[in-house]
Amino acid sequence: MTTLEHVELVGEGVDRVDGPQKVTGAARYPNDFGFPNLAHVALVRSTIAAGRISGLDTGAAESAPGVLAVITHENAPPLGRAPDTFLSAPPPPLQDDRILHYGQYLAMVVADTAEQATAAARRVRVDYEAAEPVTDMHDPRAELLTDPGGVDSTRGDPEAALASAEVRFEATYTTAPNANSPMGLFATVAAWDGDALTVHDATQWPGYVRTALAQVFAVPESGVRVLAPFVGGGFGAGLRAWPHVVLAALAARMVGRPVKLVLTRPEMFTGIGHRTSTEQRIRMGATRDGRLVALDHESTTTLQMEGNNIEACAAGTASAYACPNVSTRDRQVRLNVTWCNSMRAPGEAQGNFALESAMDELSCILGIDPLELRLRNYADRHPQLDLPWSSKALRECYEVGAERFGWSRRLPEPGSMRDGDWLVGYGLAGVSFFWYQAPCQAGATVRRDGTALVRSAVTDIGTGTYTVMAQLSAELLGLDLERVTFELGDSDLPPGAQAGGSGLTAGLGSAIHAACRNLVRAFLDTVRDDPTSPLAGCTVDEVSVGRGRIHRTGSPERGESYADILSAHGLAELTANGASTPADSQQLGLAPAGPFGARFVEVRVDPSLGLLRVARIVSVIDAGRILNEKTATSQIIGGTVGGIGMAMFEEVVTDAGTGRIANATLGDYLIPVNADVPEMEVIFVGRPDRFNPIGVKGVGEIGLVGIPAAIANGVYHATGRRIRSLPIMIDQLL
Ligand code: MOS
Predict the structure, then answer these.
(1) CA neighbor of 304 nearest in space, from 126, 148, 97
(2) How far apart are CA 678 and CA 530, in angstroms?
(3) pTM of structure
(4) SS3 state of residue 590
């Protein structure tokens, strides 16, 4: 098929195909589902961060109205352990009396109604044997893990290059812990039928939750079905099978009724992971004319007491600039904290803040424009792999962004630009996001009425997967968009990749590419020996598709419609599956490129009140081929809002003595509101990427990255104050 050979870089911004369902309330999120005779679960959480349960009194809860069961480690059955993915699985809950973090589940109450369960859960009495928790990264008792992800890198001799550099710079940057805070409360609805289990769950990965639950309960995986047609956001929180998911299924099994478990907002702060705090030291050496000669980035993040987390903040620095001597080291410190987990742009979000702040600081020391400094150190080839990039238009991002933003109007001296009482600052950051793709499968069917159904067990967490995959399938099959339906969110569909790592569009899109190609092949096989067919004997490489037909490439009249082929051969439909695996870098001779971006931010600071406002943002993004301009732009805008939150508002505040989270509500944990969000312009540049057959790179996470550094750099330009810790608070600006 040749349909992808002459595509526009930026695909048509068609409306979301699921938009009407969402705005009319017809879209059903996990906690919109139920079963007859549904029971409800409320959770009892630890109020200490470390120690043991020394006593449990469940009598008052058991005798409360409507209560069906109170389940603790004393009466819960032994549970199996879910398999690890790239992220380790949380151990099964309620298996012993150990307490490792504040908010850990110690008991659950199952009752006829949610209100009864909640009321009874308050009557469960827990006595503790408290230990002194380790909650500070600098606590000498904390275990230090070096290179936990095996991604540390060195090239050249950074120490020697630093020692002999004409200009040296060193600084330490810190970022606060952040909470994913999706709007949709995570919920699990579970129903057993013998050893078969049906679950509605707020997950980014139904296939994994199926495997996890099958192993935890030692039941055949084929009998477990996980459904998630709509999920109210995730931002990485839905990449693991959390203890509450297991508890919902356990409760249903133990009371012999279907159950629903919906996390409360405070439970969302302790039960579904968070973006860890970081402390990052950057050391740079440069020539006086602004060539980096040494770059050293050491990051320390926190980690919960058991299991892993992938939060490589320093690793990305190895491929960001053409510097001959580089060392990156990622370290983690185990603490009695809630689970550390992916939150939109794990590692990059924080690592980019440190690196791009440091580049800004170096530009000030050198007296070189920050944009010019980045261009002088531009990595034309992948500097660590020494291969050409599969695509890279970061230079164009800078150039187009500078033009649109009006960067040349920037006066270099800090504090020199004003608008009335407000100080004006221009800040920028570059972004080189990591590449990630996971194996994925999809199925494609064309029916005799000329409609198509394309399917995969993936999720659309608000990103636009339903829409862009319907668009892509329509293009690959030569059908009108209205004739194509994309189905997802069901673990019984062909195995899909997680909606994570900004990798789903490439992985799933490539699988759909393969499925559609195989489906056209199946149609050609059908007519191969049919002397009346103009397609008889054609191979898939000799044909094109369009208007519901397959035709010989270059001869649109020599073809047949899908409907006619099916009808002539007495078939109702034809189906084919397709699979994708990430391409091999060495085989292709290309370094796999993630998306790139340049973020230009104008901030206003009122120095007498310490007020900080973001006035406008221009984002120029190279994400390869863009399947849908509208949904991709929305992704960048949404990520940008997340970046504003990380820069100016978001901080999980933990009480040092107890590990208690002090601001576990959306009234206290601040996220941006409309008044905090300025005009944003998003422009896509670049060319289709060469690492996958559909030419895309992900836009799920890059929208967030770079915004914190660009804002902090803008604050410095406005005020002359360098803020090296996030979030930026009023007291730092007074
Ligand atoms: Mo993303 S943090 O990989 O959902």
Answers:
(1) 148
(2) 62
(3) 0.98
(4) coil
